[in-house]
From TrEMBL:
Transmembrane segments: none
Protein name: 2-oxoglutarate dehydrogenase E1 component
Family, similarity comment: Belongs to the alpha-ketoglutarate dehydrogenase family.
Catalytic reactions of this protein: N(6)-[(R)-lipoyl]-L-lysyl-[protein] + 2-oxoglutarate + H(+) = N(6)-[(R)-S(8)-succinyldihydrolipoyl]-L-lysyl-[protein] + CO2
Taxonomic lineage of the native organism: Bacteria, Pseudomonadati, Pseudomonadota, Gammaproteobacteria, Cellvibrionales
A GO cellular-component term linked to this record: cytosol
Gene source species: Pseudohalioglobus lutimaris
Length: 946
């Protein structure tokens, strides 16, 4: 309504008429003439304490038009005639559109490339002529509207200057894609109020310079001491160091107690020394091969680190996550670690622990796990209160030119728009602009608890690594880089020109840093020498244990029954779906001993007993609440209002937390998150369940580079449990195999546990053992599908209460062991197929022995079982999987060694499907034909072995 005062037809006596028209328009826009409707549509809505973009009350309209009428009288002398007023109003609307255009697209004109060689398309929306304005209008005063420049009126020249300085200099802000009005206006206010460039005092400027000196100085020192050695230096992106320093100090001042940082290679060594305070002498020892390693170790630029620094808000713990060469995969690992730390601190909104993830530009745009991580950022199971993302934008990916080949979008950061994250592009050669966007990013995350992205546009002064010659593939870029002064030199010259320091003082600062570096002193002045250990995760109870250590997993029978009755009852007035109601009723019968125990009962009872003993349980994955195969039903759904009730969360007031969430349709990011969580939360159970075991393929990077190797590369213990449905039921190649062979191929040095339980009691004790035993090794479970309801796959309450997990299960039928001539060794569901066929054929001289843990292979347990069969003449390994898959190739040497120690003349034969490129048959008839063939061979009385 600020525009109305300039229109002659609303002056004086017309005000009442216009007021009535406007009220009619608010009630029904179509109830006023078209020309008035168009006019009112252009007006901004007036808001009051009780009105939020709704109809404006009569009193506000009356007072406003009275004010307009008075303003009209005062300004009437300046308006020559009605046509001039109308032209003015049109231009006022164009000015508003110009302001909007700069907010929308000013970043496309911003001076972001330090090298000045990036090709940018011309943006017509930012031309005055596009909005039917010109420099001839620069002296005309217009309403500034929502433009935050401290006054309601300004000349077009002033407005244009503000917009250019705010949105088209060293910062390019993308935020108009954000739907939330408060967030957009928050950014507008922060940017426009200081014209995108606040005035920093001399002390701040000198601190910036010192941090740049440290960043550049370390790289120069490493280059001179170890020329040609790979270090993925930060040259060209030195502004990252003052950025991180400000991020840490500002976060600390706002109450943050822990910051977990994830990053790949570029600049990692610099961050270790200049941000986390690693002693430079330790880094030099690593370059010179003098460092001591546990396990296999890893290269320098994959290593993690932790330290404590002091901030205005107190001590802050910093943790740099270990990271393999798969670049972006560390992002969800960091999120999982942060979530665990937040839960440990009961930090439910993310006030105390902050994730910071540093990305490469090519990887950020190219790797799908980035999208998955963004997608999980606001979900219940995975939110962490917002992540600060920093893209270290080298403008080249290895040797790939980015705009032409590495992406189809204008910016590498465009994927972040999917969650409406604000994106601040900033020229890395302007350290003060970098400082400003860092402050904005931290404050935005604090204010809104959402992700925010800083695109630090820089370059790499050397090649992809220090052994590369980059001009081979980017000749023009590296011609420009060779002529380009460093960020430090440019900023020092700027401060000298401003009179902040002299050239002599600048040289003194550089020399002082070199002396400190030569002395091997820590370079982070805020480093805490004696950190507060309450900020750390205590892993000491879980170190130094062997997989052979036993754990007592028995439980009092009456206690078990009481818990079972407790968790299998829905609340009053909570209508259940008929099938679910029947499942709970059946489980109550199992608890009473009136029915055999099935898989779903045993699994949920394992969780209940652990929770009651104060071991926390976290279970995520696709469909985990119900269970993909409808066996779990840990989450009950009200059939009237869709409310949920989780019985395992209501065992007692003293119980441990039980967290269960159906995940987004992701394997890679979700499993990486759970790995990060498990490496930070040692107590209890952390479980990820695949919808089908085959789907773990999508997370193979996490399995290869973290779960199976993390302990030996980085000394990172992890007790994560993976439940992977596995079993051949004729459902085709993508719904049969969890790729057991891949896990067994990765087994070495007792790095993981691989189990194939075949009874409810086994899964009960296996899960309890994983939590109770202090050994922290990942547990990979080939969990069943058809066995969940198999009539033979049952146990008794006594099996749960009094038993334990058996690595090997002996023959279950009543055979005369002295007469057994053949032993069939197997794992998983095939046992029930073999036993059914043997019973049908009334064979009494073939024993079937189940190996329930394939790694670490239980040779002693197997030998103890086989010694009960003194008359065996041959042995068979029988598996469902094709010969080139499953356990055969990875485990046969273990079984042969055991057989040799028992009877050295017994040879182990393979029985199963022939080698196949596909995991399983896609036709049911073919599946059944193959099953019958290998069962016949396994049970044949005189099989001529090949």
């Amino acid at each position: 309504m600020e525009l109305l005062w300039r229109s002659s037809h609303i002056a004086g006596g017309n005000a009442t008429y216009v007021e009535d028209l406007y009220e009619s328009y608010l009630k029904d826009p179509n109830g006023v003439p078209e020309q008035w409707r168009d006019y009112f549509n252009k007006l901004p809505r007036v808001e009051s304490d009780f009105v939020h973009n709704e109809d404006i009350p009569h009193s506000v309209i009356r007072d406003r038009f009275a004010q307009i009428s008075k303003m009209r009288v005062r300004t009437e002398a300046t308006i020559a005639h009605d046509s001039q007023a109308t032209e003015y109003e049109r231009k006022q609307v164009r000015v508003v559109q110009l302001i909007s255009a700069y907010r929308q697209r000013g970043h496309q004109k911003a001076e972001l490339d330090p090298l000045g060689i990036a090709r940018r398309e011309h943006v017509r929306d930012l031309e005055l002529s596009f909005h039917e304005l010109s420099r001839a209008d620069f002296d005309t005063v217009f309403q500034t509207g929502s433009l935050h420049i401290g006054k309601a009126d300004a000349t077009l020249g002033e407005i244009h200057d503000v917009l250019e300085r705010t949105y088209c200099k060293s910062i390019g802000a993308e935020f108009m894609h954000i739907v939330n009005t408060d967030e957009r206006h928050w950014i507008m206010t922060r940017m426009e109020s200081v014209r995108g460039a606040p005035d920093f005092g001399e002390e701040v400027q000198l601190t910036l310079l010192r941090r740049l000196i440290r960043a550049e100085g370390l790289e120069k020192s490493l280059a001179s001491k170890y020329p040609g050695t790979k270090r993925f230096g930060l040259e060209g992106g030195e502004s990252l160091i003052p950025m991180l320093a400000e991020m840490i100090q500002r976060s600390g001042s706002q109450g943050v107690k822990e910051i977990v940082i994830g990053m790949a290679h570029r600049g990692r060594l610099n961050v270790l020394v200049n941000t986390l305070g690693k002693n430079p002498s330790e880094l030099f020892d690593e370059f010179e091969g003098r460092a001591e390693y546990d396990g296999s170790g890893d290269v320098k630029y994959h290593q993690g680190f932790s330290s404590n620094v002091m901030t205005p808000g107190g001590e802050v713990h910093l943790a740099l996550a270990f990271n393999p060469s798969h670049l972006e995969i560390v992002a969800p690992v960091v999120e999982g670690s942060v979530r665990a730390r937040q839960e440990r601190r009961e930090d439910h909104v993310g006030e105390l622990v902050t994730p910071v993830v540093i990305h490469g530009d090519a990887a950020f745009a190219g790797q799908g796990v980035v999208m998955e991580t963004f997608q999980m950022s606001q979900t219940r199971a995975y939110k962490t209160g917002g992540t600060v993302h920093i893209v270290l934008n080298n403008q080249v990916g290895f040797t790939t030119s980015l705009r032409e080949d590495a992406r189809s979008t204008e910016y590498c950061t465009d994927v972040a728009k999917m969650v409406q994250a604000p994106i601040f592009h900033v020229n890395a050669d302007d350290p003060e602009a970098v400082l400003f966007v860092t402050q904005m990013a931290v404050d935005y995350r604090t204010e809104f608890r959402k992700d925010v992205v800083i695109d630090l546009i820089c370059y790499r002064r050397r090649g992809h690594n220090e052994a590369d010659e980059p001009s081979v593939t980017q000749p023009l870029m590296y011609q420009a880089i060779r002529k380009h002064k460093t960020t430090r030199d440019l900023y020092a010259a700027r401060l000298v020109a401003q009179g902040v320091l002299s050239e002599e003082q600048d040289a003194f600062l550089v020399d002082t840093f070199r002396e400190s570096l030569d002395r091997g002193e820590p370079l982070v002045s805020s480093l805490v020498s004696e950190p507060n250990k309450t900020l750390f995760v205590d892993w000491s109870p879980y170190i130094g244990h062997k997989w052979t250590d036993q754990a007592t997993t028995t439980i009092d029978l009456q206690k078990l029954q009481a818990l079972a009755q407790e968790i299998n009852v829905a609340p009053d007035n909570f209508p259940l779906q008929r099938t679910v109601s029947r499942i709970l009723e059946d489980r109550r019968k199992m608890a009473a001993g009136a029915a055999p125990v099935n898989w779903g009962f045993a699994e949920t009872m394992a969780y209940a007993t652990l929770l009651d003993a104060e071991y926390p349980v976290r279970l995520t994955g696709q469909d985990v609440g119900r269970g993909t195969f409808s066996h779990r039903h840990a989450v009950l759904h009200n059939q009237k209002d869709e409310g949920c009730y989780i019985p395992l969360q209501h065992i007692s007031d003293e119980q441990a937390p039980f967290v269960i969430h159906d995940s987004l349709l992701s394997e890679e990011a979700v499993l990486a998150f759970e790995y990060g969580y498990a490496t930070t939360m040692p107590k209890g159970l952390v479980i990820w369940e695949a919808q089908f075991g085959d789907f773990a393929n999508g997370a193979q990077v996490v399995i290869d580079q973290f779960i199976t190797s993390g302990e030996h590369k980085w000394q990172r213990l992890c007790g994560l449990t993976m439940l992977l449905p596995h079993g051949y039921e004729g459902q085709g190649p993508e719904h049969s195999s969890a790729r057991l062979e891949r896990f067994l191929q990765l087994c070495a040095e007792h790095n993981i546990q691989v189990c194939v339980p075949t009874t409810p009691a086994q899964v009960f004790h296996m899960l309890r053992r994983q939590a109770i035993r202090p050994l922290r090794k990942p547990l990979v479970v080939m969990s069943p599908k058809s066995l969940l309801r198999h009539k033979e796959a049952v146990s008794t309450l006594e099996d749960l209460a009094q038993g334990r997990f058996h690595n090997v299960l002996d023959e279950s039928d009543d055979l005369d062991k002295a007469k057994v001539r053949r032993v069939i060794l197997c794992s998983g569901k095939v046992y029930y197929d073999l036993r059914a066929a043997r019973r049908e054929r009334e064979i009494d001289d073939v024993a079937i022995v189940r190996i329930e843990q394939l790694y670490p292979f239980p040779e002693e347990d197997l030998l103890a079982v086989l010694k009960q069969y003194p008359a065996i003449t041959d042995a068979v390994w029988c598996q469902e999987e094709p010969m080139n898959q499953g356990a055969w190739y990875s485990s046969q040497h273990h079984m042969r060694r055991v057989l040799f120690n028992h009877k050295n003349d017994v040879y182990l034969h393979y029985v199963g499907r022939d080698s196949s490129a596909s995991p399983a048959a896609g036709y049911m008839a073919l599946h059944l034909e193959q099953l019958e063939a290998f069962i016949n061979k396994a049970l044949a009385p005189e099989e001529p072995w090949q």
